[in-house]
Amino acid sequence: MPKVLNEITKLSDQDCFYIVERYKSEFDYPLHGHEDYELNFIERGKGLRRVVGDSVEEVGEYELTLVTGKDLAHVWEQGTCSNPAVREITIQFSPKLFSEELLSRRQFESIKQMLKRAELGLNFSLQTIMKVYSRLDSLPSVPDAFDQVLSTFKILYELSLATDSRVLASSPMAQIAPGPQSRRVNKVREYISENYASELSLEKMAEMVGMAPTAFSRFFKIHTNRTLMEYILDVRLGNAARMLIDTSKSISEICYACGFNNLSNFNRIFKKRRGYTPRDFRALFKENRVYV
């Protein structure tokens, strides 16, 4: 089975919701699970690959999925998406926010049923997304924290009334069972993910999966639609983009921390692949995070 990261979310015990808005060019976070509930909205993400348990689907321009199962592995992967500015709004909240006493009230019956179904992952139709779009769209920038909490509850309530939402996974513990070929690719991808800051050798990775270097290069491209060097470069650039947004490290520090050994080369490649210099990217794609 694929390795699943046990994520510790950034939700504080003192807050009702953790809301984060991002503009992303790469979806390279690993398969993961967490105890906190999560509602994930994606705009302009056509071609992304959503994995929830043993459900694997390519998403359209708009995507909205609720996950409440603590053992349910999930991830949004790059797939065939080439949009350099996919918008993602993630809302996380503790299971304790909705106590049994609260959910026993008549007014919360539909939310109770929705949270139960979402233990297997619950996907919402485009029609339902459009009903809550205006609230989702403005949620990260609502100036008053209490109004944000009320607006988030309203979004959840509206979603709970949807009659066309779809359960995704077959069971809370279900996962994709990879074949022998995908296990080879996953082994190399995991190795690159853990060692992208170091010098990576084609010969070493080919040896890891018991193949000759030339054969492995062809095999990797067939199964990822990218050459090995292109894939490594994308991983390094993806991590660099994340560090530009998530940290205050200098561009020079990020350059060397992500496996590039020349600052001017890093700036040139980043602009060519992302359309912006690292400095401009940092200014344009800062995350909007809210704890309410």
Protein described:
The chain has 292 residues and is an alpha+beta fold. It folds into 2 domains: 163 residues, Regulatory protein AraC (Jelly Rolls); 111 residues, Arc Repressor Mutant, subunit A. Helices cover 42% and strands 18% of the residues. It contains 11 helices and 12 strands. The strands form 3 sheets. Strands 11-10-7-4-9-2-12 form a 7-stranded antiparallel beta sheet. The chain has a 3-stranded antiparallel beta sheet with strand order 6-5-8, with no helix packed on it. Helix 2 crosses helix 4. The longest helix has 19 residues. The two termini are 37 Å apart. The mean pLDDT is 88.
Spatial shape: globular
Order of helices and strands: EEEEEEEEEHHEHHEHHHHHHHE
The total count of strands amounts to 12
Distance between the termini: 37 Å
According to CATH, the fold-level topology of the largest domain is Jelly Rolls
Brief account:
This protein is an alpha+beta fold. It has helices at residues 100-103, 109-117, 126-138, 145-160, 180-195, 202-208, 213-224, 228-246, 251-257, 263-274, 278-284, and strands at 5-6, 18-24, 32-33, 37-43, 49-52, 55-58, 62-67, 74-77, 86-93, 122-123, 166-167, 288-291. The strands form 3 sheets. Strands 11-10-7-4-9-2-12 form a 7-stranded antiparallel β-sheet. Strands 6-5-8 form a 3-stranded antiparallel β-sheet, with no helix packed on it. It has a two-stranded parallel sheet with strand order 1-3.
